[in-house]
Amino acid sequence: MHNELKQSYKNIITAVGEDADREGLQDTPKRAAKAMEYLTQGYRQTLDEITNNAIFSSDADDMVLVQDIELYSMCEHHLLPFIGRCHIAYIPNGKVLGLSKFARIVDMYARRFQIQEQLTHQIAKAVEEITGAKGVGVIVEAKHMCMMMRGVEKQNSSMRTSVMLGNFRSDSKTRNEFLQLIKG
Fold first, then answer.
1. Under CATH, which number does the domain 2-39 receive?
2. Which CATH number describes the domain made up of 53-183?
3. Structural domain boundaries in the chain
4. How many other β-carbons are positioned within 10 Å of the β-carbon of residue 120?
5. What is the pLDDT, as a whole number, of residue 154?
6. Tag placement on the chain: N or C end, fewer CB within 10 Å?
7. Main-chain dihedrals φ then ψ at residue 182, nearest 5 degrees
8. Could you tell me the strand order of the sheet in which 113-114 lies?
């Protein structure tokens, strides 16, 4: 994969009218290929692998909130970054997930070509699947470079998406508690 990406980046540099052999660009295809491999590593990961059995029995049945998880992803429409944060809440149903695993779940799905709506849904479904939670709420807030750097060029725009599953969808008190907690 690396050599294929490297050649593709060299072709892009040439196609835009640059000299790919110019001193400052000679190693760019190699560096860009390495960066792209990293930015898309989510395709080569699985939920079981990243959670690594960090699921523990627990009597806890109150809301658990992990807030402000940084995320960096790539818009599947323009291959430009979108950058933001994710808030995840769940109501345990006999099992809790190790804290760092929430960030790993976010990263696994964010490190794929994405749209924010799908990313939010994938994170929520993954938390539900791995924990068997009574309910899951996920909110993603992000700024999209495809909207900021090109097209309409709106620098202060951001997008917010949410997915509510189980109790978060059916119980307005649970949903409202989540929304109040993330306001800080």
1. 1.10.286.10
2. 3.30.1130.10
3. 2-39, 53-183
4. 21
5. 87
6. C
7. -75, -15
8. 113-114, 64-75, 81-91, 135-144, 159-166
Task: Give the C-alpha distances (Å, rounded to integers) separating 145 from 71, 120, 131.
Answer: 14, 18, 33
pTM: 0.95
HSE-CB at 180 with a 13 A cutoff on CA atoms is 7
Report phi then psi at 41, rounded to 5: -65, -15
Tokens describing residue 95? 């099992």
Q: What is the pLDDT of residues 16-75, one digit of tens each?
A: 999 999 999 999 999 999 999 999 999 999 999 999 999 999 999 999 999 999 999 999
User: Of 37, 50, 147, 151, which is closest to residue 106 (Cα–Cα)?
Assistant: 50
As a whole number of angstroms, the distance between CA 27 and CA 34 comes to 11
User: 13: number of CA atoms within 13 Å, CB side?
Assistant: 21
- Cβ pair 137, 150 in contact under 8 A: no
| C-alpha span between 24 and 8 (Å, rounded) | 18
d(CA 152, CA 6): 31
